[in-house]
Amino acid sequence: MVKFRYQSWRLAIIAALVTTGIFIGCSQKMGIPEAPQTVSLSGTIVEIDDHGNAVTDLEIARFTERGWKLSDTLEAAFATGQKIQIKFVENYGDVPVGDYLGRFSTSTKQFKIAINMGNISETLKLKNQSKVVLQKVESPSAD
Length: 143
What we know:
Helices cover about 25% and strands about 30% of the residues. It is an alpha+beta fold.
């Protein structure tokens, strides 16, 4: 009788360990989907050009590795605490006069943040060497 209790108790422990292992294995295989992480891009305003555009140190490769493309809407957050939405475009004329935009210079390949026919550095009081963080604005799904 003592021998039977010992074996029953031992079987119970083994069963508990096996069951725990199965649950852990299943939860690791299934995985719980994580909330999508926002991918931002940080840069520095390296120059205010003759037209008042904010020229950054951001390169196109950093945009493409995030999957950002022309016509995307981006949020630009500046060190001043201001946040604006800009349209990522090829040319200034791709947005209406007075709208914010972001584009790569064809000559320097640097990302510029601007106002079409305006002066963004005066409008937002932007300074050389200040930080900017860009983030893609997700459009609402059409469900």
